[in-house]
């Protein structure tokens, strides 16, 4: 089973709202990732967690706040977003070895009004 | 610095014909190379990867890719294209000891005409 699940599938929020994206995997992967993808563009890495600790933050604005409560779950808390933050947000997971494949979830389509 | 180039934004091919989606890479050290496919409004789906060993890698849905070290290329191929192969294809490279850092090409839109 190589399934990564993400909820919700779609999200519309105003610039003053607080919302959260959720990602879950049960493959025993100890690395989890958040990516942002604009239409017809490659994914852009935002955050990497390894063993539930934040390993990489790609200079993401503080209005995005990641959280890894346990080895299976990854959240992305959103607050005071801007319209330009509208995008597809992808979660991925992998084993920690360098050559291991990252498996992606279906994404959350976010629209900020 | 690590980088991936997909020189074609768009590839069009007739159903039943062979297809090639090109990818070249630049990385210091030994590369780990990946191909992903993305259907509209979906996440990325893993197709195949090259780590070491045989230069010809076979993957899902009849796709294969050939690693060419001298030309630093990793082109994706399929002997006979299907209309259902129409999608956005991403090549990605990862260097050893760079946790999490997949470097993606800009993507190639493949359209297979019936």
Description:
The complex is a heterodimer of chains A (113) and B (114). Helices cover 0% and strands 57% of the residues of chain A. Chain A has strands spanning 4-7, 10-13, 18-25, 31-37, 44-50, 53-57, 64-70, 73-79, 87-94, 103-104, 108-112. In chain A, a hairpin with a 2-residue loop joins strand 5 (44-50) and strand 6 (53-57). Chain B is an all-beta fold. In chain B, 0% of the residues lie in helices and 53% in strands. Chain B is built from no helices and twelve strands. In chain B, strand 10 and strand 11 (103-104) form a beta hairpin. Chain B is globular and about 45 Å long. The mean pLDDT of chain B is 92. Chains A and B meet through strand 5, strand 9 and strand 10 of A and strand 5, strand 6 and strand 10 of B.
Précis, in short:
With 113 residues, chain A is mainly beta. Chain A has strands spanning 4-7, 10-13, 18-25, 31-37, 44-50, 53-57, 64-70, 73-79, 87-94, 103-104, 108-112.
Report Rg of chain B.
14 Å
Contiguous helical run count of chain B = 0
Mean pLDDT of chain A: 93
Q: Which geometry of chain A do the CA atoms define?
A: globular
**SSE succession of chain B:** EEEEEEEEEEEE
Q: What is the terminal separation of chain A in angstroms?
A: 37 Å
Low-pLDDT parts of chain B are none
Largest interface, by Cβ-Cβ below 8 angstroms: which chains and how many residues each? A-B, 28 and 27 residues
Can you give the mean pLDDT of chain B?
A: 92
Outline of chain B: globular
Give the topology string of chain A: H per helix, E per strand: EEEEEEEEEEE
Q: Helix/strand-derived class of chain A?
A: mainly beta
Major sheet summary line of chain B: 6 strands, mixed
Summarize the biggest pleated sheet of chain A: 7 strands, mixed
- Report the β-strand fraction of chain B as a percent range: over 45%
Helix percent band of chain B = under 10%
**Termini separation of chain B:** 41 Å
User: Could you tell me the number of beta strands of chain A?
Assistant: 11
Secondary structure category of chain B: mainly beta
Instruction: Identify low-pLDDT runs of chain A.
Output: none
């Amino acid at each position: 089973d190589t399934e990564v699940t993400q909820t919700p599938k779609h999200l519309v929020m105003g610039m003053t709202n607080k919302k959260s994206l959720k990602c879950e995997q049960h493959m025993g992967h100890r690395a989890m990732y958040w990516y942002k993808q604009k239409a017809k563009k490659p994914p852009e890495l935002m955050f990497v967690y390894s063993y539930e600790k934040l390993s990489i933050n790609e200079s993401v604005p503080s209005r995005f706040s990641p959280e890894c409560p346990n080895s299976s779950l990854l959240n992305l808390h959103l607050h005071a977003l801007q319209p330009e933050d509208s995008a597809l947000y992808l979660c991925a997971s992998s084993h920690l070895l360098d050559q291991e494949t990252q498996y992606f979830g279906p994404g959350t389509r976010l629209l900020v009004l | 610095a690590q980088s991936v180039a997909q020189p074609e934004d768009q590839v069009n091919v007739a159903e039943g014909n062979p297809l090639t989606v090109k990818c070249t890479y630049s990385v210091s050290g030994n590369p780990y190379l990946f191909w992903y496919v993305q259907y509209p409004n979906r996440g990325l789906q893993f197709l195949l990867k090259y780590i070491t060993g045989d230069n010809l890698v076979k993957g899902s849905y009849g796709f294969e890719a050939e690693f060419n070290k001298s030309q630093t290329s990793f082109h994706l191929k399929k002997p006979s294209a299907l209309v259902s192969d129409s999608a956005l294809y991403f090549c990605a490279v990862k260097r050893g000891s760079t946790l999490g850092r997949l470097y993606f090409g800009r993507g190639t839109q493949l359209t297979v005409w019936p």
